Amino acid sequence: MPKKRFTEEERKQRLREAVKRYRLAHPERVQEQRRRWRERNVDAEYRKQQAEKRMQIRHANPEEARAKVRLDYHKHRDERLVRMRQYRLDNLARLTAKKKEYYAANREVILERRKLEKFKPYYKEMRRRNSKAQQDRLREQMIAAYGGKCACCGEDKPEFMTLDHTDGRGSHHRREVGHAVYRILRRAGWPTDKYRLLCMNCNWAMGLRGYCPHQQVGGATFAIGVAA
Ligand SMILES: [Zn+2]
Ligand SMILES: [Zn+2]
């Protein structure tokens, strides 16, 4: 069988496909080649000129440029947010250190700026968010320190957990001030002699009736033991 002869058009088509396959198979090689080509052929001055040109176009049509930026932003918004969040998580220690360094170096300016009327709502919101996050962390620590589940029924959903003061009535007030107590207890190393974790149901029953129906067997009522 004679060797198949390709037409000129077919030959070009095959070549294009081969190039495409190569690009897909070795993206890093292609990238490296491109980089080297740019290095050889596109010097810094040329790049600067191009940037300048783009800038001029942007300045000539500010509306259009803004619209384009906005469009691009919305087009990739979700993936971008995911990427940013991941980046933040991956570099948390470094970013926090950087932030602290910046604050230390610019403390006066920052504090002065916070007093500006237009920033007030922003900083108010920030304070609220921070203190909420702090309280959530503290509560998490409290729940973990006291065993993570209700001492009566074993319920373990954190949303249901309450701190029970086993001394009885004196606890009412302290339960209300919540996070101040958590802080005091944390400082004391989470003492278990007078405190335990109860779910809201069991705590409510204990407060109201002095016993929890979970502990009633055949009409008899038992007190719940304090966790050692
Ligand atoms: Zn319970
Ligand atoms: Zn119970």
Report the major sheet: 2 strands, antiparallel
Derived structural class: mainly alpha
Total beta strand runs: 2
Bound molecules: zinc ion
Low-confidence stretches: none
**Helical coverage, percent range:** 55-70%
> What is the rounded distance between the termini?
92 Å
Counting H and I runs of at least 4 residues, what is the number of helices?
11
Shape by Cα distribution: elongated
Helix and strand run: HHHHHHHHEHHEH
Describe this structure as you would to a colleague.
The chain is 66% helix and 4% strand. It has 228 residues and is mostly helical. Among the domains are: 70-105; 130-217, no CATH class. Strands 1-2 form a two-stranded antiparallel ribbon. The longest helix is centred in the middle third of the chain and has 26 residues, at 120-145. The radius of gyration is 33 Å and the shape is elongated. It binds zinc ion (ZN) (2 copies). One zinc ion (ZN) is lined by residues 152-153, 202, 212, 214.
Set down the secondary structure blueprint.
Blueprint: H1 8-25, H2 27-41, H3 44-60, H4 62-75, H5 77-90, H6 92-105, H7 107-114, H8 120-145, E1 161-165, H9 171-176, H10 179-187, E2 195-199, H11 200-209
Helix pairs in contact: 8-10
Bound molecules: zinc ion (2 copies).
